[in-house]
Amino acid sequence: MDAVDRDILDALRTDARMSYRSLGARVGLSANAAADRVRRLIATGVIRGFVTLTDETATSDTRLDLIVDARLRPDTAPETFEAALARLPWITEAVHVTGAWDYQLRVRVPNAARIDELIRVLKRETGVEATQTRLVLRTAALAETATFGPPVAPRPQQR
Predict the structure, then answer these.
(1) Where are the alpha helices (DSSP H) in the chain?
(2) Of the candidates 66, 82, 92, which has an alpha carbon nearest to the alpha carbon of residue 128?
(3) Distance of CA 138 to the CA centre of its chain
(4) Which of 17, 27, 94, 110 has its CA 20 to 30 A from that of 41?
């Protein structure tokens, strides 16, 4: 990882769909060199994937977004819990946190009946001891990505 790789990551966090030509111009590389770097970042696991952010109010789907705090039973290993979560389609994100709870889960269910089912499954099949569930009323429109340091300025082209 060098400064150019970090600049590539910052640029892709802002617009993951930008062309390799635009990316290269932004970080001072040719389109081919930028593409090679992105492929290497994917191959080494630095880039784990690309995500499409949607405006849920623009779709007609009825879904409930939840935040579920989960405390694991003392005999439940985090790796075991995370593997069990991977089999649950409603879990969209799991964050291992500090404090009174072990994990904060982002959940999307189709209706209220699935909330009860989810909590029962978490306690019965994943090693969860206790949960606290909150309904997401709205997600604020904040910056879609977090970057550190000053914005990336275009670099002179390298050949």
Answers:
(1) 3-14, 20-27, 31-43, 78-85, 112-125
(2) 82
(3) 18
(4) 94
154 contacts 26 by C-beta, under 8 angstroms: yes
Residues 56-109: tens digit of each pLDDT: 556 556 688 999 999 999 999 999 999 999 999 899 999 999 999 999 999 999
Phi, psi of 113 (to 5 degrees): -60, -35
Placement of tokens 């617009």 in the chain: 15
Tokens linked to 64? 């409930």
Q: Mutual orientation of helices 3-14 and 31-43 as an angle, nearest 10°? A: 90
Buried b (16+ CB within 10 A) or exposed e, 51-86: eeeeeeeeeeeeeebbebbbebeeebeeeebeebbe
- CA 60 – CA 77 distance, rounded (Å): 39
For strands 103-109 and 91-96, give the pairing. antiparallel
Answer whether 25's CB lies under 8 Å from 157's CB: yes
Amino acid letter for position 158: Q
